[in-house]
Design a protein that fits this description.
Largest sheet of chain A: 5 strands, mixed
Structural class of chain B: alpha+beta
Order of helices and strands of chain A: HEEHEHHEHHHHEEHHHHEEEEHHEE
Shape of chain A: globular
Shape of chain B: globular
Strand content of chain B: 15-25%
Radius of gyration of chain A: 20 Å
CATH class of chain B: Alpha Beta
CATH topology of chain B: Ubiquitin-like (UB roll)
Number of domains of chain B: 1
Helix content of chain B: 10-25%
Oligomer: heterodimer
Number of helices of chain A: 14
Helix content of chain A: 40-55%
Number of strands of chain B: 5
Radius of gyration of chain B: 12 Å
Largest sheet of chain B: 5 strands, mixed
CATH architecture of chain B: Roll
Structural class of chain A: alpha+beta
Strand content of chain A: 15-25%
Strand order of the largest sheet of chain B: 2-1-5-3-4
Strand order of the largest sheet of chain A: 1-2-10-7-3
Distance between the termini of chain A: 33 Å
CATH superfamily of chain B: Beta-grasp domain
């Protein structure tokens, strides 16, 4: 196995039973592992609800550390759809030329700094600032705000040593409260102002709902994007031939983006709460118990994907569900894809070679499964492209 | 060269021509409302769903299993559903009419 590989820990359970029950703070979760089952459950919101107690559909559960409902993520239709109608156009802004030009400038600056250093610890000194700066574009706030986001570390919600740190979440809530105060006093063209001026169900969106939507924007796109960027750098370091191919065949970039996102599956899974007795793969699901939709396992399902454990850069048919599936599909997907697109283009343009000097893997533990999701730290040496 | 017509949910009619690429790319390049092609054409996002005019279905043919699995879970699926990212532009598609599903 090479350093940039992400093995599939789910294969045996996916093949044999299709469901694996794990404990989570005495609120067990039945992980659904096969692609078709995950898609069916994701679509069936009437049986598998997202509108449970705030924090409960997240694994590990956040019910003990927050009361704020994340919006529209922890809502079911029809209110969910009303919020998506407001938020979807905003989250498509990454397709605009001006947005992409600004993002390109941000990413190029980071790459040039890496080229000029002996080595860079990519998680904290490349991916974290990249994600934080890009977030200023998504929120449409001044670039300088990124310094605050960088100071929060790789998780906005969690300390490095405590996945459920309520004190840390409070820092984010206080920041958002302050930004909402500013937007109310002096509305601008940032996401805070836009949401505060919106209506749902024929009434104004509440401050708590805006809080929930902004928290989601911070939390959903944090470690996921950081891992996606870091893992891509590690992969290209480990596979110099892939960087050369991307450089000579720009027409495969869009497929390569989807393939890297499939292979890395930055979010392992997401929960739902059963509203009635049900079953998945003959596994009984009790009313008010939890299942999780395991995107990471589904994306390696060999009944759907040929050579599922290989990165096939030009994979033509790739029905992955790294961005979820159905009406709750990832709101930030366009932003994430745009980041990866520009990152790859700028690496092709500016970097001859990347080398891994040292790394420590970030392994998640879910019951019997140990899953590599990225790196706690990774030292990379960039060599500028010499023409 | 194939001339392909898209009818959107708002009943706008857009006819566009191409010789290569996919029907999804043709639609996106011509700003057809309701065809987003978020995943770039790898059959992952289902944002390029159309209903083929029944008499044109012979020209497009039906979906393969992977595409069928995607379509089955779409609220607007019909027996004439296709994902346009899985349709390569060719002479054979000249003159077809596609109704955008969303």
């Amino acid at each position: 196995m090479s350093q940039s590989d992400h093995p599939d820990p789910f294969k045996e359970a996916r093949t044999n039973t299709g469901v694996q029950e794990i404990d989570d703070q005495n609120d067990p979760v039945a992980m659904v592992l096969r692609l078709k089952d995950v898609r069916k459950c994701a679509r069936n919101w009437e049986t598998y609800s997202s509108q449970a107690r705030a924090g409960r559909i997240v694994v590990p559960s956040e019910v003990n550390i927050r009361d704020i409902r994340q919006v529209p993520f922890e809502l079911d239709p029809p209110l969910h759809g009303e919020f998506r109608q407001i938020m979807d156009p905003w989250f498509k802004r990454p397709l605009e030329e001006g947005y992409q030009n600004a993002l390109r400038e941000q990413i190029r600056t980071l790459i040039q700094a890496a080229n000029n250093s002996d080595a860079v610890e990519a998680v904290h000194d490349f991916s974290l600032p990249l994600q934080s700066r890009a977030l200023t574009l998504l929120l449409n706030v001044p670039f300088e705000e990124a310094e605050t986001y960088i100071s929060w570390g790789t998780h906005v919600f969690r300390s490095e040593d405590n996945p459920l740190d309520a004190g840390k979440a409070q820092v984010l809530y206080d920041y958002i409260d302050q930004k909402m105060d500013e937007a109310e006093a002096n509305p601008g063209d940032d996401l805070f102002s836009v949401l505060l001026a919106s209506t749902v169900e024929g009434r104004p969106v509440t401050r708590e709902e805006v809080m929930g939507a902004i928290v989601l924007t911070f939390a959903g796109g944090r470690d996921t994007v950081i891992n996606m960027v870091t893992n891509t750098l590690a992969y290209l370091a480990d596979h110099p031939e892939a960087l050369e191919r991307l450089r000579s065949e720009p027409e495969i970039h869009r497929r390569a983006i989807e393939e890297l996102i499939r292979y890395f599956s930055p979010l392992t899974h997401m929960g739902r709460v059963a509203t009635e007795e049900s079953s998945v793969c003959e596994h009984a699901v009790k009313k008010d118990s939890r299942i999780s939709l395991c995107w990471a396992s589904a994306n390696r399902d060999d009944t759907v994907f040929e050579r599922p454990n290989e990165v096939v850069l030009d994979r033509k048919v790739n029905p992955h569900i790294s961005f979820g599936f159905g009406h709750h599909n990832c709101l930030g997907a366009t932003h994430a894809r745009t980041i990866l697109k520009i990152l790859i283009e700028e690496l092709c343009e500016n970097v001859g070679r990347i080398q891994i000097k040292d790394q420590e893997e970030n392994i998640e533990h879910w019951g019997p499964f140990d899953r590599k999701v990225g790196y706690n730290n990774i030292q990379l040496a960039f060599d500028a492209l010499t023409s | 060269m194939a001339k392909i017509t898209f009818i959107t949910q708002d009943n706008d009619t857009i006819t566009a021509e191409a010789t290569t690429g996919t029907v999804m790319e043709l639609a996106v390049d011509n700003g057809v409302q309701g065809i987003d092609g978020d995943c770039g054409g790898v059959c992952s996002c289902a944002t390029c769903h159309v209903h083929v005019r029944p008499e044109d279905f012979e020209k497009t043919g039906g979906p393969n299993d992977i595409e069928k699995d995607m379509l089955e879970l779409d609220d607007e699926v019909s027996e004439y559903s296709r994902l346009t990212c899985q349709l390569d532009v060719s002479e054979a598609l000249d003159g077809i009419i596609l109704k955008v599903a969303h």
